[in-house]
Amino acid sequence: MGKYREDATELLRLVGGRDNIVAVTHCMTRMRFALADPSKADVPAIEALKSAKGSFTQAGQFQVIIGNDVADFYDDFVAVSGVSEASKADVKAAAVGNQNPLQKAMGAIAEVFAPLIPAIVTGGLILGFRNVLGDMPYFGPDGTQTLASLSQFWTGVYSFLWLIGEAVFHLGIPVGICWSITKKMGGTPMLGIVLGLTLVSGQLMNAYSVPSATAADWAKYTWDFGFAQVHMIGYQSQVLPAILAACLLQLLRALLQEDLPCHHPDDRRALLLASPRRHDRPLHRRPHRLGNRYLDRRRGDGWHLRRLPCRLRRHLRRSLRSPRNHGPAPHDERR
After folding, report:
1. Which of 27, 178, 262, 310 is catalytic?
2. Closest among 12, 5, 82 to 40, alpha carbons compared
3. Alpha carbon distance 167, 162 (integer Å)
4. Which of 264, 259, 257, 253 is CA-nearest to residue 309?
5. Is 262 a catalytic residue?
6. pTM for this prediction
7. Half-sphere exposure of 255 (CA within 13 A, CB side)
8. Fewer CB within 10 Å: N-end or C-end of the chain?
9. 255: alpha, beta or left, given left = phi > 0 and alpha = psi -120 to 50?
């Protein structure tokens, strides 16, 4: 019998019983519940438990603070409740239904920017140190010079650190946002990276150079389509344009994800978005030996052509339908 079995039994009753628990897990110090009805939890009584040190609700999860022995408490709770063990991701997914629209929106924004935090923190520390070297005139004999002006070494360091700072804040933020949003929305992360790099391409005028641009600059940084002219301006350090561009990419992907006729739009979709083709059109003849290497079996519902150039796909389908290719379907029980 575990040392926390009694408190675990009582906590099970106070959170509304086994039927009120959708999923439960633990972190370093807390039990984390996804409850079907959070209002059934008796918060004052839970906080009065000997093992509990407090409770709160965050992101739709009801969390009870246990302390460093939370792993032992969790084992006893699982034993007395009969609930299956769940991961943090499972509890997080189950708790989404308990969030209001504002919490869901804030959670989505946090998930987009959370992967960028290490780079932003690192870049901030580097730029802070760079400011100490070149922008703080408190050194020298009279206390009016910077470290960079006193030493060639620190001048080189000052110049070098801008390489990292520019990579993080001018280029990394738009690229990271496009990658993160594309990944979160189920797209191809590499396409998000390509989109972000496009926004900050060296072929475009730097956004910080726009106020001082001359007529000669605009003559160089302008696309002339005959009927319209478009200025070539980058989006360095920009957040909202990167968010809008990534969302537009996913909207286009969703619109083009539907099955299209094989003779032209499907290849265009593959070229634009490289989104996987839905495999829901089985071929029910024995595959031609030329086409064997281009066939794939998915979910046991038949054999399907993978995405191929349109002309080659038509050739393979004609081969598969030819009279010499009779026989049972590849998924037939006789095979």
Report:
1. 27
2. 12
3. 8
4. 264
5. no
6. 0.60
7. 8
8. N
9. alpha
